[in-house]
Amino acid sequence: MPASKTPPWERKRPAGKKPKRLTAEQKARARARAQAHARRYPNLVDNMWAAQQPKKKR
User: Fold this and answer.
1) 1 pLDDT exceeds 60?
2) How far apart (Å, rounded) are the C-alpha atoms in residues 53 and 31?
């Protein structure tokens, strides 16, 4: 699939999709990724990445 030239922060949400909150585990992954890239806080790309990662089974 070709990548879109529009950055994610300028794209609209797909029709019919509602926003979902990140779980505590996903937030921790986003924070860790941001810290690994020398950022204090996770940005949109970190949050999108964390939301796409497979969830751990308990």
Assistant:
1) no
2) 14
Residue 16 lies in a domain: no
Residue 52, both tokens: 């796409």
In a domain, 27, yes or no: yes
Query: CB–CB of 5/17 below 8 Å?
Result: no
- Which pTM was predicted? 0.75
∠ CA 42-46-50, nearest 5°, is: 115
**Residue 40 structural domain:** 22-58
Is 7 or 3 the better-scoring residue by pLDDT?
A: 7
C-alpha to C-alpha distance for 37 and 34, rounded to whole angstroms = 5
- Indicate the SS3 state at residue 34: helix
Structural domains of the chain, count = 1
